[in-house]
Amino acid sequence: MNKYDLPPARKRYFKLTDRIRNPLDLMSHVPFRIATASNLLALNRDLSVRQDCDLDVREMRVLINIGSYMPIKSADIAYQSRMDSYTVSRAVKALRQAKLVDFEPVPTSKRAKNLILTEKGEQVYGLITNAVEKRANLLDEVLTENEKVQLCDMLARIESKAEQVMAQYALDRVQEGDELPADQKELIRWYRKGLGT
């Protein structure tokens, strides 16, 4: 067993069923393992983050994106974070009501608006990012610098391939004349944006 294996107790507790033929072994299924780690790392699961602000996880993710990349458009937050535009819009609405974010005009467009943090938003951003950085430093202890670089590379390749596979499936549905829901249209737009088309 290497140091990155699942704890033995978890392996003992979760035995593959014998009630169906060829059950999916979730413990060796990469997308499932990534999703499991992601669930544990969700900002609202961390008490050190939750004690500093009263935001849900999508609001925190949007606030962090705005603070890190402002001025930024909602559509670009959706693309960068892989959240759907409806989720981003709901989070922006809540963040504006809490007076944490505001709009600023885009100099090159009469209609488009960028998102920026307010002074209060900057304070909350600082609290969240400090807590997130402390946690990241603790988690980084299990990886060498080279492993961290490799992990980020692997995750980027998995994300890119997942986007390609999902977008291609959606494009195939369009070819067959199906009407796509908004999130699938957005997925295709992101995919094309990544291709530069």
Give the helices and strands, then pairings.
Blueprint: H1 8-13, H2 30-41, H3 47-50, H4 57-69, H5 74-81, H6 85-97, E1 101-105, E2 113-117, H7 119-140, H8 145-175, H9 182-195
Antiparallel strand pairs: 1-2
Helix pairs in contact: 4-6, 4-7, 5-6, 8-9
Q: Can you put this structure into words, describing what you see?
A:
The structure is a single chain. The chain is mainly α and 197 residues long. The protein folds into two domains: 24-142, Orthogonal Bundle (Arc Repressor Mutant, subunit A), CATH 1.10.10.10; 144-197. It is built from nine helices and two strands, in the order ααααααββααα. The chain has helices spanning 8-13, 30-41, 47-50, 57-69, 74-81, 85-97, 119-140, 145-175, 182-195; strands spanning 101-105, 113-117. Strands 1-2 form a two-stranded antiparallel ribbon. It is globular and about 60 Å long.
